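Q: What does the assembled structure look like for these inputs?
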Amino acid sequence: MRRVNLYHDKRAQWAVYVVFFGILAIIPLSMDDPFTMNQYSRYGVFAMLALSVSLVWGFGGILSLGQGIAFGMAAYGMGATMQMQYQDPVNDPIPSFMLTNELEVLPTIWEPFWHTHLGLILAIGIPVLFFVIFGILMFQARIAGAFVAIMTLAMLGAWYNMAYDMQPYTAGFNGISPPSAFVAFGVEVDPYSNLIYWVSLGVLCVLTLATKALLQTKFGTIVQAIRDDPERARFLGYNVAYYQIVLFALAGLIAALAGLVWVMITQFVSPTSLDIFFSITMVIWAAVGGRMSLFGAIFGAMFINAAQSYVGDEFQATWFIILGAVFIIVVRFAPKGLAGLFEYVFGFIPYRVRGTSGARGDAHSASE
Amino acid sequence: MSVHDFWTPFALEPFINALIIGLSLASIWLVAALGLTIIYGTMGVINMAHGEFIMLGAYSAWVMQFFIGIPWLLCLPLSFFIVGGFGWLVERGLIRHLYDRPLDTLLATWGVSLVLVQSVRLIFGGEPQYIDVPDELSTVMNLGFIHIPWMRIFIFFVSLGLVAMTLAILFKTNMGIQIRAVMQNKEMAASFGINSKRVYGLAFAFGAGLAGISGAMFSGLKTIFPDMGLGYVVEAFLVVVTGGGEVLGSLATAGIMGELFSVFSYFTNDTFGRFVLFVLIVIFLRFRPQGIFTPSMARR
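A:
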């Protein structure tokens, strides 16, 4: 018999995930409001972004301020795919914004998006490939800490400018707004329906559980060891750069999927998806919820965004002051966020388990 | 813009003009980055609120002129002290507790910047404000094919003056010697009786004050609005990090970056020039993360 913190019990954690996603999944059954469903699916996307930040920063110790790169790239890929679904190959082969920009033929980089499947593969594949290359560039050189933050930030700024500037290809500031909803396998994903909510939640659920499972493997343990002391992990013989690159790319993959779903929901993509402010906001969600807990990060994203829309546009300035202040307090006094608070409180609940296995060494507990 | 006129061919006179614009831009980035250089170089803090310190400098100049009627030139040194004092408070209340967690200082100062932007928006409104500058500075200098506003020339020389002043403070005063001692080895400096906490506080205040003076100066060049800081902070960071956190490094980097950007922009356009510049910096940092000059200090 050994006394442990219930918070670190793996079975309890999985139970929480099942209950959480179970409750979220049946929400549409109790209400029939397409606009609310659209709103909620957006929270799902924000949660995916917080998940990717939590994975790369909370568990990998890599503070990436450039998650928006993957998000934005995938969003543009998806925007192009949906736009080409609307276009007719014979009568109307060129999107209208290109015509106003004096393009007479469809640019070559837009050609693959005629095919929905190829478009989706590109929308996910290109950002992930970019993150792999960018990761190799940074982590092979053993760049860490604030330098990663600055480099990802600069790269994000570069892509933002690019999206803004390549007006004939990206519609510049106005952005691409595909006129019709996304159609996959003959099913139209109406952005104002229960379906879109389940798509968003489904992707979030699968990503979360997969990440959770991944972090419980040997890979997850090594990644956290690298976060706590890269030098020591290197001396133990682990290829630190390899693990960091893979982790960075996985976080990019999650952010890319978020971008994909985002455009399905909004039918709109513009340079704001590559905005620096947006990418740092993702970090705030994860930090407030608890970056070292996937559940905390997801909850943080949902809670903060729900609160933000509840407050409304009228008090937006006040809201950001509160958010900034909360963020400062969290960073200063509670670096583990809300989840850390729960961990602390649960430490007082007497809870015993038999033996030593089963309730030990979980992902959440591995930090300090 | 259409695709066909993307590339501008070379011509001597506009090219020289572009080089001069590059110098002017470099001086703006330099003066924005100078305070950040002190803060980053001394304590290794990535101050994300630096752009907002610049914004505060601009607003304090505007308030002093609009409500009290202080002439613009006098606003510059006053902004230094106002924003410097504010920076000192931020260091006392927040940064001081986070020195052993460098990534968290980055995030906490981002929180500070969020609060500052929105507070200013709440107090002064989001609409742009204008400031009156002396008539001599609001005209344009004409030298044949070269047209430069006097304001830009003024900023160019003031930025060089500020660099000289900073170097003088760092190398000729007691305070500067203490700052450099703490920079190189905090514990060793402390054992020689230097109060490193006080030095950090003053260095941060000095860096913030430099942001304040640059903000007041930019207020003469452009309009003032709550988000204006974001327009400077990314470039300022790149200057500082590429320059290795040293004053002369920042001077060199700002010059190179300004010229490169201006030349790229001349051949293509502003946004594409910026894209190329950012990518080049990322590649540069990959090979020389310690910056353009090897720093003499210990890296924390």
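The longest helix of chain A spans residues 240-266.
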